[in-house]
Amino acid sequence: MTDFTQIEHPMLALIAHDQKKDDLVDFVGRHHAHFLRCKLLATGTTGGRIAKMHSDLDLTPLKSGPLGGDQQIGGLIAENKVDGLIFFVDPLTPMPHDVDVKALMRLAIVYDIPMALNRSTAEIMLLDFAARFNGEKDAH
Hints:
Blueprint (H helix, E strand, L loop, with lengths): L10 E6 L4 H10 L1 H5 L2 E4 L1 H10 L4 E4 L7 H10 L5 E5 L9 H13 L4 E2 L2 H15 L7
Parallel strand pairs: 1-2, 1-4, 2-3, 4-5
Helix pairs in contact: 1-3, 4-5
């Protein structure tokens, strides 16, 4: 697992299914100060919506999830360039690119990076990251 006390600006990947995009944009707004300390990656529409609302964030937009954005993030996870994944999943809506989503989650597990799939786990992830960045030795 990454030693977050050694990372000046963690790289976080942000993804949201269509029905969860508003939730993720709201989440970023509520935790704006934390996200200012991060480098962010986001898939297509999600990244565009976050950038529109929070233009001061260091955000790199990637392709839309179904057009390869999930795979772009997966590649960066495999290269150890992503420190955490926040993926607001909509489990009630069928996704045509579900295989890509599962592959992305599998990579996050294989490379042992923190992965939050809803607001509650994302809150916990950010609390843990904040504690680690503040130098607390046993933040987990």
